[in-house]
Every structure is written in structure tokens, then in C-alpha cells.
Amino acid sequence: MDFLLLSYLHSTEEAERECLLGELILVRAAPVVRHTLRQRLNFYVDQTGANPHSPEAEDLYHDIIAKLIERLNEAEADNGRQTIRDFRQYVSRVAANACNDYLRVKSPARARLKNNLRDLLDRHPDFLLWRGAAGETFCGFSEWRNRKPSHASLEKIRQLEDDPEAFMRGKFPREDVQRMPLIHAVAEVLKWVDSPVEIEHLVGAVARFQGVKDHAVESLDDEEFNWKQRLVDSTVRCDTRIEAREVLQRLWDEIRRLPPKQRDTICFSFEDMSGEDLFSLLLDAEVVTLPHVARELGLPLDRLMALWRDMPMDNASIATVLDATRPQVNKWRFRALKGLEKQMSVCLEQSNK
Amino acid sequence: MSDHISEPQMEKFYARTLEVPELTRIAGHLATCAHCRQAFHEVFQQRRDYAPVAFNLSPEAWLKNEHLTYEQLAPYVEERMDEIEHEMLDIHLKSCARCREDLRKFIDHRQQTEPEMQVRYAPRERASWRENLLPLWQRFLVGWRPMYAAAIVAAVAGVAILTAVFLGQHRMSDSSPAQQAQSTRPTDAPPTTSSHAAVPPLPAPPVDETAQSSADDSPKTAIANRGPARSTVREPRTPQGTSTSGATKSSPEALVSLHDSGVEIALNNSGELTGLENLLPETEQAIREVLLARVLGRPQTLLEVTGSSSALRGARGGESRFRLISPKRTVLAEDRPAFRWEPLKEATSYRVHVVDSNNHEVARSPELPSTTTEWAPSVPLKRGIVYMWIVTAEVNGEEVTSPAASEPEMRFKVLEAEKLNELNRLRERSSLHLVRGVWYARAGMLGDAEREFQLLVKDNPQSPLARKLLNDVRSWR
Q: How confident is the prediction for chain A on average, in pLDDT?
């Protein structure tokens, strides 16, 4: 069992327990949670659990941390009867389960309905989508462009979601609503509500009375298994420290040769299969020192450290750092990877022998 | 000499939970202290459970979680995406069943809803009085003064009094000669019961598609130019320029008409399709949708036969030295297709390889002489499967392959057996180019669709719609 965990479970002083809990969570658990979120859901959060581009990622991260704290408190109250033999694996499992639960709640059928509704409202000249003051998306007839949503409309939409059958009986007594053209259903809902509504509410209402349902979610374990099989062939793996040093040296040499934007994008986003960022790997293998990396990237060391704290980063964060757009970063990364893959193919052949 | 870094500090350095100045200090120290670098190494390895360094540089791995967003759907389907973004998305789609399903559903949705773009839904009458009232009220509010209020009240009262006086005078002069003369005018008087049944409506002139040589027939322009007579939801209004009693309906206008093999096919504004006989309801519906929307939806099956390039295919990059001609990015009815390619000058022989989507070779030609640039397998290929094919040419003892690894794969699909039966039945029922062209296009049989639409254009040389259908199919190749 982890020594720090053991200390925590057997600690008798409140202040010491709090300190040990903080270390367990921030130093031991948080990196594992962040890695799991990246691997499974492509959710990125920084050291503080923040991601201004993705409130969902932040929420899920904090949910997992809260769950871990709760479990540790339970284990501590239980006087260590519930033994956690391998804390890292335990954290990884808790995080993976949370990701699975998150995916189960998300409804692909509803997401597709939302895409279809947005597309229809975007393209049909009689309808309009627009942003509200707080960033929410409203929809309605084109003539309602300057109209504010009414309180009564929210109540009506709620009624519709609660009892769609009553709406259908009233509006479409003889029609099969599920076979009705979607835009026709939307027009009738909007006429009935007689006010702009938030797109999410419209999606909810239409999903209810059109009976939009999800089919069984395919097992994540199967998906992951199949994907891992395919990845094995193209993974570079170094079994010894010497091999790791050679391969990482080669990788670093190739990364340095990339055009600056591609180089920076790869540096900030790279992670190995265990979730370690590029600079940590290079530092461990003694390929470079951090001041050396800072000079190479043309940055002061403290600026590099501030960036290192958030690595590996998602494309949105890299775009902020490089003052670019997310699509630009996507393309830089893609081009860099194609070039690196080609250059490193020799390493791949040797490591697969 | 600086102090060495303690183990707890090193743990925090590894986890990067320290403040930036402290991280900076330790980073600088590690650059000069071998002892602390070793300590970092120990913490690092322990925290990762001594897992070996392993990483993957393939775009497939990195794009695994770059799921399709709403903002990408329309540009992808409409082929407005730039090349690199398209390639990235294609790579992701290969590994993500959910996104493939999202895309398929979106394409289905587009095809199903195209006709709906022409239908009007706005509650016009209700909106207009609200729209008029609101700015009027706003005008009252701006610069509101009590004096203005009094002036307004006085003005309203004055108008009311004048209206009452006018109406009173009008009633008194009801029996004047001028009023009697007005009631006998035949065309613009309000209908009376005696004239109601006596004046039949004039039929509206049909809109002949072939005569509209300068009309732009894109859906948006069609919507902009459309008059009320084209609505399929509202009651048909009186066409302009005709006189009518107002009580009897006018006959439906033709929205679209095409000549096809001596037959006139027309769609009127009631949705009635004429000129097509002996067709199954779903075939008729498909034609109706295409004529209404004036666009052929790109069939989802073309996604299956659109190849992509990949550095993982092994060979170094570069262009092919000779081109493969057909079959390419299409669906074929024949299960023993003829593979055609351009000759390579220095080649001494060729060999054709056909593989399925699992990269299993399903057909291989014998060594073909250099004068041969066509080959068909003797054993039929299985129907309903997507295949890829390559040709290797022998040049000075070396093999030259086409397509090159950096170029898109040559894919095609053999039509499923049920679809083939459906096609055979269609061929028996109808020889019309429009009917066959639409069927072929929706099945992904691009060569056949193009041929039928070329003949349709020949029958309708002035028709923008016929030309558009042909161009749509050509744009997919």
C-alpha cells in the first residue's frame, strides 16, 4: 500500500490528516484523473481543474475529486478496513467509471436531433437562431428577431415536456406525430408557445413528443479493446532507459526541426501512453534540461514553467497561448504528426522487432 | 552550492503543484545537479509505476477523440471543408462508429428535409400586426411629454369625429346615381350572389420549366422568387392578373415540367406529379422530392467508396506514375467489373489486385502483358461489399504501384442483390431518363446516373434543372 495513503489512514491529528489528504489528492490522484479524462473523453483541465473552454470537463473533474475525497474519508473512518492496495489504480478506476457514467447519460439520439433542428432553423428562411445576452441560443420565427422570450413561454415549454400527449391531442389529433416532418412540428410548437425559446428547451420538447430514444450504448470496454489492438502496431515502445533516451533524443531532434508553430503545438500537446508530457519525459531521460528547452522555444524559464503546469494542453488552450484559432492549431498539429510519424518510422520498425 | 531538493518537494515538482517561482528555481537547480536529477528520475518512475516509455505518433491515435461537431457537419456534407480538415475528419470517422452514425443521420435528414425548405411556416398575419404595433408604441414612448399626450388625445378625438361625420354622410347618399354605377362594374366589384356562379375563374398559365432559360434554380433563389401560388401548405390564392368570383378555386399551376423520351413530366403546386406511370410509390416520391427541391442529395453510400490517403500504407509518398481510370468512387451493378488504367510507358507487365475492407485479397489478375490496360475477374465479386483495387506495373525489375500511398484509395462497391432486383424491376417499369437517373444517383451509381442525365439534358436543352442534376452527379466524382 502507498506510504502516503497509509500515513493518512493512520493519522490521528486533524491538521496532519488535512495536509496528507491534500497531498494524496493534488499530488497523487489529480494527475491520474486528468490523464483518464484526456484519454477517455478528450477532456482537458489544468492543475486547478479549470478549463474556460469546457465547463463539462471542469464539472466532471471536480465530481471525480469529490468522489475520491468522500471515499478516502470513508476509508479513514473505517480505520483502514477497506484496504486500497494500489492507490493509483484505484483512482484510475474511479475516474474511468465516472467517464462511463457520463457517456451513458449523454444521449446520441438527442444530440443528433439537436444537430438536425439547428440545421433546419439555420437554413429555412422562416426561422432564425440567435444568441442571447448571456450567450444562450434562442430560436423562433424570423419575424421574432427582436423579440425577447416571455416567462409564459418557459411555462408552456415545461408543460409540453411534462405532458407531450396533451399537446399532440390538441394540435394533431389525427396525425402520426413521429412521421411528421420535423420542421412542421417545430413550427407548431413555436406557434403554440408564441415566443422565442432556447434551443435546448425546443430540443427537449420535440424529443419528448417525437419519442426520440437512444439504442443500447455499445460497451466502452469493447471499443477500447478494438482500438488498442489497432494502436499496438503503430506505438513506439522503449523497454530500457537507454532505448528511451535514444528514441526521445531522436524525437526531440525531429521536433526541433519542425516549423515553430508546429513545434510548439506538438510540445504543448504531446503525451505518452501513461499521460506524461513531453518535457517531463525528456527531463527524466536526461535528453534536455528545462532551461535548455526554454532557450530552444525562445521563452523565459518562468514562462515555460507556467506553460508546463498546464501540459499536456488541449487545442483550445494552445490556441490561446499561440494567439491562433483552434482550427489553425488542429492543422499545425496534424501536419507536425504526419511529418514526425514519417521521420520516426525507423524507430517504430526497430521497436517492433 | 544550492541545497538539494527534498523528496516531498520533488513529488510536488513532478506533480507541478508548486507555484511558478518555485518550479523555476527547481528547474534551474536540476540543470546543474546530477544528484537531484536522479531523485527526480526515481520519483518520476515511481509515480508512473515504472511503465516503459511508449507513445504513438499516428494521426489516427491523436484524432481518436476529435469528434465531429455540429459546425463541421454542413461543411463536410456540402464539401466546403478545406482539404486538411477533411482529411482529419476522414481519419477520425474511420475509427469512430458514433460519428459515422451522426454523419449518416445528418445526410438522411438533409435528403428528407430538402422539400420542406420550400414550404412556408411563418405566422405572417399575426406577426405583422405585432410588428406594426411595437415600433408605434416605441415611437410614443420616445420624447413622451404630457403636452404631447394632450395633443395626441385631441388628434385622436378629431379623427374619430371626422370619421363619424363621413360615415353619416356616406349612409345618407347611399341611393345616389354614382353609387349605382359603381356596383355594375364587372371585374373589381365585390362579388354579389347573382354574379357569383356566373363568372368562372380563368386558369392560371402553367409555368413551363423549359421556357425559363435565365432562371436561377438554386433552392434559396427559388424561395425568394416564389409567389404564394407555389405553397403546398396554404390554400391556393388567386393568381395575379386574372379575374375571378373568389369563390371557385383556380386549377393548379405546374411548378416544374420536363420532357423525357417523348413524355411530359410535370409537378404542380398541389404536389401532383403527372407523366409518370406504373411506378412504385416510393419511386414517385423520390422524383417528387427531387423536382421540388431541385437538388439531388449526395447519397451516403458515397462515403463508403471515398478513399483516403495514409502514410501507414507503407510506401513513400509521391504521385502515381500512371492513373487508374475506373471503377472509381462509385457503385456498380456488375459483379465482374472491368478494371481500366492508363498505360505506363516503361512497364513490361501489369497485375491487378482487388481487396476487401479488411485488406483480404479477393481477386488477382494473372500477369498481364504491357499492351493490356483492362481486366475483369472471372469469378464474380460478392455483392454489397466495398472493395479497393491497385495495379502494380513491372518496370526494370521493380514494382510500381498505383495509386501511390499518399493518394486516395480506389474504392468501389458492388450493388447489393436486393438493390439489383429493385433496379431490374425499375428498368422494366420505366425507361424515362429522369426516373432512372434519380435511382442511379441515390444508389451511388454515378456513371449510370451521369449517362441518364446527359440524355435528359439533350431532351431539355434549355432546362436549368436538367443541367443541375447532371452537374450534381458530376461534382460527386
A: 84
Give the integer Cα–Cα distance in Å for A227 and A42: 15
Whether B24 has a pLDDT exceeding 90, the answer reads yes
Q: Which residues of chain A are within 8 Å of residue B358 when distances are taken between CB atoms?
A: none
Of all residues in chain A, the one with the smallest CA distance to B70 is A115
Q: Which amino acid is it at A53? A: H
Mark yes or no for CB contact B311/A271 under 8 Å.
no
Exposure class string for A69-78: b at 16+ Cβ within 10 A, else e: eeebeebbee
Distances (CA, A) of A350 to A92, A270, A343: 31, 22, 13
Residues of B in contact with A290 (CB under 8 A): 27-28, 30-31
A48 lies within 8 A of chain B by CB: no
Q: Do A309 and B95 touch (CB under 8 A)?
A: no
SS (H, E, C) chain B: CCCCCCHHHHHHHHHCCCCHHHHHHHHHHHCCCHHHHHHHHHHHHHHCCCCCEEEECCHHHHCCCCCCCHHHHHHHHCCCCCHHHHHHHHHHHHHCHHHHHHHHHHHHHHHHHHHHHHCCCCCHHHHHHHHHHHHHHHHHHCCCCHHHHHHHHHHHHHHHHHHHHHHHHHHHCCCCHHHHHHHCCCCCCCCCHHHHCCCCCCCCCCCCHHHCCCCCCCHHHHHHHCCHHHCCCCCCCCCCCCCCCCCCCCCCCEEEEEEECCEEEEEECCCCEECCCCCCHHHHHHHHHHHHHCCCCCCCHHHHCCCCCCHHHCCCCCCCCCCEEECCCEEECCCCCCEEECCCCCCCEEEEEEEECCCCEEEECCCEECCCCEECCCCCCCCCCEEEEEEEEEECCEEEEECCCCCCCCEEEECCHHHHHHHHHHHHHCCCHHHHHHHHHHHCCHHHHHHHHHHHHHHCCCCHHHHHHHHHHHHCC
Contacts A19 to B, Cβ<8 Å: none
| Percent of chain A residues past pLDDT 70, beyond the cut | 87
According to the per-residue pLDDT averaged within each range, which of B2-16, B149-163, B191-205 is highest?
B2-16
Confidence check: pLDDT of A147 > 50 = yes
Predicted confidence (pLDDT) at residue A233 exceeds the cutoff of 70: no
Please compute the mean of the pLDDT values over residues A92-120 and round it to a whole number: 87
Q: pLDDT category, B163, cuts 50, 70, 90?
A: confident
Residues 251-280 of A with CB under 8 A from B: 270-274, 276, 280
pLDDT of residue B19: 92
Q: Which residue is closest to A346 within chain B, CA to CA? A: B314
Whether residue B121 and residue A187 make contact (CB cut-off 8 A), yes or no, is yes
Crossing angle of helices A199-209 and A151-162, in 10° steps, is 30
Residue corresponding to grid cell 509518398: B317
CB-closest option in B41, B65, B311 to A41: B65
Chain A stretch 78-117, residues whose beta carbon is closer than 8 A to a beta carbon of chain B: 88, 108, 111-112, 114-116
Q: How far is B113 from chain A (nearest CA, A)?
A: 7
> In this structure, is the dihedral angle defined by the CA atoms of residues B411, B417, B418 and B422, taken in order, positive or negative?
positive
- Other C-beta atoms closer than 10 Å to the C-beta of B273 total 17
Residue with cell 465479386: B381
Looking at chain A, list the stretches that DSSP marks H as alpha helix, in order from N- to C-terminal side. 3-10, 14-23, 30-41, 55-77, 87-105, 108-123, 151-162, 164-171, 182-193, 199-209, 220-232, 241-257, 260-269, 278-284, 290-297, 301-308, 315-322, 326-343, 345-351
Are the Cβ atoms of B24 and A244 closer than 8 angstroms? Answer: no
Q: Which residues does chain A have within 8 Å of residue B31's beta carbon, measured at their own beta carbons?
A: 289-292
ipTM of the complex model: 0.81
pTM (global) more than 0.90: no
